[in-house]
Design a protein that fits this description.
By secondary structure, the protein is an alpha/beta fold. Helix content is 35%, strand content 23%. Bound molecules: adenosine-5'-triphosphate.
Amino acid sequence: MLEIHDVRKTFFPNTVNERRALQGIDLHLAEGDFVTVIGSNGAGKSTILNTIAGKLTPDAGSVRVAGKDVTRMADHRRARWIGRVFQDPTAGTAPNLTIEENMALALRRGHARGLSRSVSGGRREVFRRELVKLELGLEDRLTAKVGLLSGGQRQALSLLMATFSGPKILLLDEHTAALDPSRAELVTRLTEQVVAEHALTTLMVTHNMSQALQVGNRLIMMHDGRVILELDAEQKARATPADLLAEFGKIKGAVVDDKTMLS
Ligand SMILES: Nc1ncnc2c1ncn2[C@@H]1O[C@H](COP(=O)(O)OP(=O)(O)OP(=O)(O)O)[C@@H](O)[C@H]1O
């Protein structure tokens, strides 16, 4: 479903600020694979997600989604196949629009025309049914402004909205990092639910070692623009956070932040 072949990206090449963010990434994800991504600071985790989403064009290599080469396709043209949730709960939703208006816009994403942010009775019912799944009572607050919701509620809504265009790929960039532990747990559970329900091929960046082991069926560790460790489902089931930290410990000069050390 997602094939990344020898992807390379260097920022500010041939200058004193040169950063080799990706140095030959190869990743093949089958439909429904859920890969957690961990790594030191500056390892290239966000850069690889940006490359898949089309925010960045790699210098070399290719990205294929469902067999189609999207390497040089503009981000808005691949948007309907790729859902994304960011760390910042305010990033995925518009605060001054209501819950139902936000959902209507998400539904329109990837469709050229024909749908607007206005909400008909029929569509309202669909939104209500979707919101019930979150178990946050948002189905009774369809006309509330999204800016009034808590961070956890907004992330849950962003996650739901990310699936509206019928994406094949879901990219999660530390989407639970800004939440308190109980909200993070809730959004993690919803993530597993949403991924399973839509059989989404998923990459989830996290600094939380327990979470990286708890969810998904594969794990990769990145450092310095490379994948330096890959675990399959069986290896992942046997590994502990201490094992992952020990792997980090083997990397000379790797900077691992406090969040990672404490997780
Ligand atoms: N737009 C950019 N311009 C210049 N350099 C960049 C840009 N984006 C990323 N970099 C550099 O590329 C490298 C990889 O960055 P990236 O954000 O992908 O790392 P990361 O693994 O997500 O790190 P973190 O966990 O700290 O967020 C870093 O050295 C970073 O400074």
